[in-house]
Write a structure and sequence with these properties.
- Among the domains are: about 160 residues, Glycosidases (TIM Barrel, Alpha-Beta Barrel), CATH 3.20.20; about 120 residues, 2-Layer Sandwich (Maltooligosyl trehalose synthase, domain 2), CATH 3.30.1590.10; about 130 residues, no CATH class; about 90 residues, Immunoglobulin-like (Sandwich).
- The protein is about 40% helix and about 15% strand.
- The chain is built from 27 helices and 25 strands.
- An eight-stranded parallel sheet has the order 16-15-14-5-2-1-18-17. Strands 19, 20, 21, 22, 23, 24 and 25 form a seven-stranded antiparallel sheet that branches. Strands 6-13-12 form a three-stranded antiparallel sheet, with no helix packed on it.
- Helix 8 links the parallel strand 14 and strand 15.
- The longest helix has 28 residues.
- It starts with 18 loop residues before the first strand and ends with a strand.
Length: about 800
């Protein structure tokens, strides 16, 4: 084996015991990752989890905007740097997991950076790459000499075309518009600009027409990310060739699949990937809603962990207190009675005729019209009726999308979900609803158009759910921000310990190697930021009073929901620099789309908000009160942080540690959470003993993380078994065994525990034997153990039974 060609022995690489997510970017390249390998090996992880590796748009800080599937990003160091990283990782018995982006590519600036797209723009539907992209050529009239062929809408002009004609110039065979560059159809370079534009296979248009007229599928509502048709075998092979070659060479050992819900056939994609890799470790970024479970027939190891994140946070959240807090929020802000209503409203806005996803709904309507035209028995369903029914289906669908495979019986879950979503359709649209139901479930026979409808409905539904709930409703309902996380379910705050145990038992039986997560590059608030906010559910009346007092002290606020957002943001990330706070608030209110938005900003409102936030941070009477409150809840936030970390690191699954998360991390939504981390300093602190500074959360969490990861790597994570506590504070304890030798014990609802008198006579039944708490060094004998003694100085314990002689 050479450093250029790492090739582990066949069969040497099993599933991860844990992984560590690194956000690669120009400020943290593959070279930096290689230098971090000794530290990450010492920390105890088994795999490095790398953000996207392929060539992305210039300056990309995330890598999800691929421009070239044929090479590793030169901005990150290129393939030589990746191979050097793999070789260094292998020397330390680590392996690599790569993030794969199969759903879309960038529409970059300049456009020629995406060569397949460049050729499509030049050659139109006859391009050798035309089948790569999910384009509806029928939705736009083509060039004047071939109107029936269609063309691609490019919504990037700053104004209507007539006002922008003077900004176009021709250089050789290239059309330029400011920093944009477009290829010219052969033979058109010498024409006057207006005639030249009329003869291209693309139509430059005002950016505002995209929502209603766009004729290519995109990532959610991002016009700069055009969808790729990986369901076509040739496209799959071309877009995955480099990553598959690196896997075959032993450089990459596993894959994280971004946004599988955007794919026409997620299961089919995973089967093709499994076949191509021989069953490599693969997890999917599938967002599961409520009680939804990952389809059992997907050939993968599981999800990226948002489902477990929700359970971890849930079991540490006071259900009754959260409900009281939401009641106080409703009274103060006059919001809907249920955050689910905000979700429905957010979805409805997207699917409205003037909504951001109107073009996607229109494409579905055209498909239904074509199906009905081809079959007289299905005719006489007016387009407005079809549109109304589809909008209701997409608005009310209870999970992200159905998984209906043409030619197979629809899953029972999809049948029930479609029925539930159509339950509110008016009676006069009943026949059309029945038509749409049959098409959605694949029950009206097969044809290319019907098969396409099934796939496209799922793709559109997932975009509506993500944008309507995660990226709209979760920025509107600000009662308790720790609930508003990716995959969250704020309508049902809190989780009983028995439910958490049930979840862990389910994972252990069905998805033992699924990833679990606490923080990711997409979480709106890091785990430790949420740990602070979770305390608020235990003191709802006190927190509501503080909110009211701070709002009064700060002066007239732009609106009450935003005041709740502001104060919780300060608590979550305190102390906060003014510019950082302003950036987060502006993103939040624009995503909420109530008073302002990205596409229709209200400068007056935004100026008021910025002034209000900056004045609050400059208020000499207010800042000490905020700081005092944060200090007063610090012991309980510490307990929540350590409890969440220990649950994450010892429950069934593969814990994925987000960069820097081994110490307290108080980051907010991207780009705040994607900044490079000083791993060199963490390496130095890893050698420190937490006993040197008792109560130092940074050292405690780093020590806990390293201890738990090393235990996992040594093979100590055995079968899952809940343990039961008895006594007056039993509900504040959560404990479980992993096999015969390890036990995890955590405190839940610490504020309530403290104010109810502590553990008192609460006891935990430990298996017989001598145990050592790996976090404190304390030894204890099995049997009925006093929890007050076990957790005397620490809110959590990680017990290992001594070997029998």
């Amino acid at each position: 084996m050479t450093s250029e060609q790492p090739r582990p022995a066949a069969g040497a690489v099993g599933p991860p015991t844990s992984s560590y997510r690194l956000q690669l970017q120009p400020a943290f390249t593959l070279h930096d990752a290689r230098r971090a390998v000794p530290y990450l090996a010492a920390l105890g992880v088994s795999h490095l989890h790398l953000s996207p590796l392929l060539e992305a748009a210039p300056g990309s800080t995330h890598g999800y905007d691929t421009v070239d599937h044929g090479r590793i990003s030169e901005q990150l160091g290129g393939e030589p740097a990746l191979r050097e990283l793999a070789a260094e990782a292998h020397r330390h018995q680590l392996r690599l997991i790569a993030d794969v982006v199969p759903n879309h590519m960038a529409v970059p600036v300049p456009e020629q950076l995406n060569q397949p797209l460049w050729e499509v723009l030049r050659d139109g539907p006859d391009s050798r790459f035309a089948h790569w992209f999910d384009i509806d050529w029928t939705a736009q009239p083509g060039p004047v000499d071939a109107p029936e062929r269609g063309r691609l809408l490019l919504p990037l002009l700053g104004d209507r075309l007539g006002a922008e004609l003077g900004q176009f110039t021709v250089e050789g065979e290239t059309l330029r518009y400011f920093e944009h560059a477009f290829p010219l159809r052969p033979g058109t370079a010498g024409l006057p600009i207006a005639e030249l534009l009329s003869r291209q296979w693309y139509r430059p248009a005002w950016w505002r027409v995209a929502d209603g007229e766009l004729n290519y599928r995109r990532f959610f509502t991002v016009n700069q990310l055009i969808a790729v048709r990986v369901e076509v075998p040739e496209v799959f092979e071309a877009t995955h060739r480099t990553l598959l070659r690196l896997h075959a060479d032993g450089v990459l050992d596993g894959f994280r699949i971004d946004h599988p819900d955007g794919l026409a056939d997620p299961r089919g994609y995973l089967r093709r990937l499994a076949e191509a890799t021989g069953g490599a470790y693969t997890v999917v970024e599938k967002i599961l809603t409520g009680p939804e479970l990952l389809p059992a027939d997907w050939p993968c190891a599981g999800t990226t962990g948002y489902d477990s994140l929700r359970r971890i946070d849930g079991v540490l959240t006071d259900h009754a207190g959260a409900e009281r807090l939401m009641h106080a929020y409703r009274l103060d802000c006059g919001t809907p009675a249920d955050p689910a209503e905000e979700g429905r409203r957010g979805r409805a806005e997207l699917t409205a005729p003037d909504g951001e996803l109107a073009a996607e709904v229109a494409r579905l309507v055209r498909l239904v019209e074509g199906i009905c035209s081809a079959e007289p028995a299905l005719s006489d369903h007016p387009a407005p009726a079809v549109r109304a029914v589809l909008a209701e289906l997409l608005t009310a669908y209870p999970v992200y999308r159905p998984y209906v495979v043409p030619g197979e019986p629809a899953p029972a879950e999809a049948v029930a979900d479609v029925a539930a979503a159509l339950a509110r359709v008016p009676a006069e649209l009943g026949a059309t609803a029945e038509l749409v139901r049959g098409l959605a479930l694949g029950q009206l026979g097969r044809s290319p158009a019907k098969d396409e409808f099934c796939a496209r409905l799922g793709q559109t539904a997932s975009a509506v759910a993500a944008k309507g709930v995660e990226d709209t409703a979760f920025y509107r309902f600000n009662a308790l921000l720790s609930l508003n996380e990716v995959g969250g379910f704020p309508s049902r705050p809190g989780l009983r310990p028995a439910e958490f145990h049930d979840w862990c038992g389910y994972l252990a039986e069905h998805w033992p190697h699924t990833m679990t997560a606490l923080s990711t590059h997409d979480t709106k608030r890091s785990a430790d930021a949420r740990a602070r906010l979770t305390v608020l559910a235990e003191l709802p009346e006190r927190w509501a009073a503080e909110c009211a007092a701070w709002t009064t002290a700060a002066g007239p606020c732009p609106d009450r929901p935003t005041a709740w957002l502001l104060w919780q943001t300060l608590i979550a990330a305190w102390p906060v620099e003014p510019d950082r706070l302003v950036g987060i608030l502006l993103k939040s209110v624009r995503e909420a789309k109530r008073a302002t938005s990205w596409t229709t900003p209200d400068e007056h409102y935004e100026r008021r908000l910025v002034e209000y936030a900056r004045a609050a941070l400059a208020n000499p009477g207010l800042c000490p009160r905020i700081d005092g409150f944060v200090q007063s809840i610090a012991p309980y936030a510490r307990s929540n942080s350590l409890a969440a970390a220990l649950l994450h690191l010892t429950m069934p699954g593969v814990p994925d540690v987000f960069q820097g998360g081994e110490e307290p991390l108080y980051t907010l939504v991207d780009p705040d959470n994607r900044a490079p981390v000083d791993l060199g300093s963490l390496a130095v602190r890893l050698t420190d003993s937490p006993a040197d500074r008792p109560g130092d959360l940074a050292r405690e969490k780093l020590h806990l993380t390293a201890t738990a990861l090393r235990l996992r790597r040594s093979g100590e994570a055995g079968p899952y078994r809940p343990l039961t506590a008895t006594g007056p504070a039993a509900t504040h304890l959560l404990a479980f065994a992993r096999g015969e030798r390890t036990v995890s014990v955590v405190t839940r609802l610490p504020y309530g525990l403290d104010h109810a008198g502590g553990w008192r006579d609460t006891a935990l039944g430990l298996p017989v034997g001598s145990w050592t708490d790996q976090l404190t060094g304390h030894r204890i004998e099995g049997g009925e153990v006093s929890v007050g003694e076990l957790l005397e100085d620490h809110p959590v314990a990680l017990l290992v039974r001594e070997s029998q002689s």
